Amino acid sequence: MSNYYQEKIECASREQILAWQNERLVKQVKNVYDNVPYYRKKMQENGLTPDDIKSVDDLHKLPFLTKDDLRDAYPYDLMARPVSDCVRIQSTSGTTGRRVVAFYTQNDLDLWEDCCARAIMAAGGTKEDVVHVSYGYGLFTGGPGLNGGSHKVGCLTLPMSSGNTERQIQFMTDLGSTILCCTPSYAAFLGEAINERGMKDKIKLKAGIFGAEAWTEEMRRDIEKSLGIKAYDIYGLTEISGPGVSFECSEQQGMHINEDHFIAEIIDPNTGEVLPEGEKGELVFTSITKEAFPLIRYRTRDICVLSRKKCSCGRTHVKMTKPMGRSDDMLIVKGVNVFPSQIETVLINQGYAANYQIIVTRQGNSDRIVVQVELTPEMAADSSFNKTTAAKKLVSGLKAMLGILAEVELVDPKTIARSEGKAVRVIDKRNLYK
Ligand code: DLL
Q1: Each residue of 63-95: pLDDT tens digit?
Q2: Which of 55, 100, 104, 358 is placed for a possible disulfide with 88 were both Cys, Cβ 3.0 to 4.6 Å?
Q3: Ligand 1: residue whose CA is nearest its atom 30
Q4: Would you report the helix, strand and coil content of the chain in percent, each value rounded to 5?
Q5: How far apart are alpha carbons 25 and 264 in whole angstroms?
Q6: Mean pLDDT score, 254-272
């Protein structure tokens, strides 16, 4: 068995974890102040210098970073190291306007892979395992992260990437894959495909590490049943490194956050006030060991609860619940981050008004997104207006903007209900957050 499991770190006392965090935070704040003009300016605007931050207790004084900051600073202005020190970028699944690019030094990659290795070990992985990675490879962090973690544990690693179900099943049976890493929706799909082909007896899977999108306990049970495995949740985001920011252990009750690398806070999304442990709010991370792209108090927009209740696995790092929703309007559809504003941009560019509704459903295990768009009164009155051609043009504009296929339904003017308050743009029927 690999001795990769970092017991001294993962089961350290609270005092030890705090000591690491205090020391690393002070160093990191000085680092960004000295090397990231964008953040230095933010600190100065708040009347702060690095001397004001002496321990984690002072963290709340520091300004937040948001996705808007990342966009303003795109691509290089939040880097704390020169490009020559960096060896990799990864990027979110968003599109041009919203794309987030994160940078890594070799050491950053090493620590990120450590986090993913911890997740694999927590799911029972050892060097005897055959790890089947069906997260996408490339800019998305899923494939590269779990791939690196699997190497660290010493597992035979199958860099499958997503898609091509026949090949997935063939490799899985021929090579005896024991741990599957992919999105929960793809795991459910593979489960169905394997059962449809009567191949369940031929697979040796024992565990799965699934994340990157919201999934329910019901979905977990379905996947566990259809693949005959134990299914573990894994959470992360590109900005903070990728998968492995937190992961589930054998208790399957919340995900341990790698507190030696990331300080987690829960805030009230409306006021920014830090909430006590156990309260529901927006998760905020400070990366205290990142070299190239260290983010201080980054607002994830994910809503969850933190808990320091003793865990039966022995790990002492704080646990987060599954995300219970988002404090912004981002949707994750077919694994891709979608903002209603992107859809609106396409509509406006093609001459429509902002009267639309986005309906997301799940059929079997695939997401379906339908955009209902009102014709303008001029379009409706114009006898030469061709609805089929117009809808096709919208579909292709949306494909270019979102990178996924969205269906379009053109409806008559004034048929989409107007709301008296905030417009209800999104109807998400998937009920993923419970
Ligand atoms: O999804 C990183 C990742 C890859 C995580 C593979 C786990 C496995 P992004 O594309 O930047 O990164 O998307 C990050 O996805 O803020 C959450 O809203 C959502 N998310 C990630 N993991 C989970 C999860 C990757 N386990 C955004 N449950 C995050 C629910 C999740 N939502």
Answers
A1: 999 999 999 999 999 999 999 999 999 998 654
A2: 104
A3: 214
A4: 35, 25, 40
A5: 12
A6: 97
The residue to which tokens 């990675």 are assigned:
133
283 lines ligand 1 (CB under 6 A): no
Burial category of 383 from C-beta neighbours within 10 Å (exposed 0-12, middle 13-18, buried 19 and up): exposed
214 lines ligand 1 (CB under 6 A): yes
Cβ–ligand 1 distance for 244 under 6 Å, the answer no
Closest ligand 1 atom to the C-alpha of 93?
10
Q: Which helix (H) or strand (E) holds 219?
A: helix 217-227
- Tokens representing residue 349 in the block: 């560019």
Greatest pairwise CA separation for the chain in angstroms = 74
The secondary structure element, H or E, covering residue 130 is: strand 130-133
Nearest to 76, CA basis, from 265, 250, 292, 259? 292
Structure token pair of residue 175: 């090579």
Q: What is the pLDDT of residues 274-328, one digit of tens each?
A: 999 999 999 999 999 999 999 999 999 999 999 999 999 999 999 999 998 888 8
**Amino acid in the structure at residue 1:** M
Q: Is the CB of 300 under 6 A from ligand 1?
A: yes
**First-to-last C-alpha distance (Å) of the chain:** 37
- 178 CB less than 6 Å from ligand 1? no
Q: Is 283 helix (H, G, I), strand (E, B) or coil?
A: strand
Kindly state if the Cβ of 223 falls inside 6 Å of ligand 1.
no
Give dist(CA 78, CA 74) in Å, integer.
Answer: 8
Q: Strand pairing partners for 331? A: 338
Does the beta carbon of 282 sit less than 6 angstroms from any atom of ligand 1? no
Cβ-contact 159, 146 below 8 angstroms? no
Q: What is the rounded CA–CA span in Å between residue 191 and residue 4?
A: 30
| Predicted TM-score (pTM) of this structure | 0.88
| Ligand 1 site, residue 209, Cβ cutoff 6 A | no
Counting DSSP H helices and E strands in the chain, the numbers are 12, 21
CB atoms within 10 A of CB 374: 21
CB 59 within 8 A of CB 297: yes
- What separation in Å is there between the alpha carbon of 335 and the centre of ligand 1? 9
Ligand 1: residue whose CA is nearest its atom 6: 142
Residue 108 to residues 89, 211, 242, 245, Cα–Cα distance (Å): 11, 21, 11, 13
- Provide, rounded to the nearest whole percent, the portion of the chain with pLDDT above 90: 81
Pull the structure tokens for residue 275. 């909430």
CB of residue 323 inside a 6 A radius of ligand 1: yes
